[in-house]
Design brief:
Strand content: 5-15%
Distance between the termini: 71 Å
CATH architecture of the domain at 53-188: Orthogonal Bundle
Structural class: alpha+beta
Radius of gyration: 27 Å
Number of strands: 5
Strand order of the largest sheet: 1-3-2
Order of helices and strands: EEEHHHHHHHEE
Shape: elongated
Number of helices: 7
Length: about 220
């Protein structure tokens, strides 16, 4: 898991002969090859044009799913949103330099561990990421430690008996915590009260004199 992402190349495969049904998340392919210029291994993600969407536009599309999956696993949706924003900013095809993939940036072993077959399928990735976060919260009983473990791994948190002293992890915990708190404040803030409607008529007042006569008047 990481905070920084590199563009490993959106190779636009024009699948002219393929039916539209093939252009699903399952059509996304991730391969590792040797860069002929540097000799280093690089990961290449091939995304059909029909699937390429901007994170800003996908965020609203994912909100209902995030809410549903988070509550199904007894997690605050605001915490899940904060993790997603820090991990991929709602880019379901993000790949980190370390090889974490998809919406919630799952490393392949973690994805397999939590039943994710295709990390670039946002629904699968979301399910796996939320299950992993739930597991970490149950393990440590503390949101900050769970977030630290999501970034650095549970073994690192156990080894150091707290948030590991890695600059990346400490920065990550701070970023997620800030976003989580901001999201919770926004959710809890009541909508501003509408100004009281002014009557369209002048109110009528009344009085009774000593003789029992009733008088109606306006101001």
């Amino acid at each position: 898991m990481g905070l920084r992402f590199f563009q490993v190349g959106w190779l636009l495969g024009f699948l002219a002969a393929a039916p539209l049904a093939a252009e699903t998340a399952g059509a996304v392919k991730s391969t590792v090859r040797v860069d002929p210029r540097t000799g280093r291994l690089v990961r290449v993600v091939v995304v059909p044009p029909a699937l390429r969407t901007e994170p800003a536009s996908t965020a609203s599309r994912f909100q209902e799913a995030v809410e549903s999956v988070a509550r199904r696993h007894a997690l605050d949706p605001a915490l899940v949103r904060a993790v997603i924003e820090a991990e991929s900013n709602y880019n379901p095809y993000a790949v980190s330099p370390k090889g974490a993939e998809g919406l919630m940036q799952l490393m392949p072993p973690t994805a397999r561990r939590f039943g994710v077959a295709n990390s670039f399928n946002f629904a699968e990735n979301l399910q796996g990421g939320v299950r992993y976060l739930r597991y970490l919260l149950d393990l440590f009983g503390d949101e900050r430690l769970a977030v630290a473990a999501y970034n650095a791994g549970e073994k690192a948190v156990i080894r150091y008996g707290g948030i590991p002293p890695f600059p990346e992890t400490r920065s990550y915990v701070q970023k997620v915590t800030q976003r989580y708190q901001a999201s919770r404040r926004q959710t809890r803030s009541p909508a501003p009260a509408a100004p009281a409607a002014q009557p369209e008529y002048r109110p009528v007042e009344w009085a009774v004199d000593a003789n029992g006569n009733l008088y109606l008047y306006t101001r």
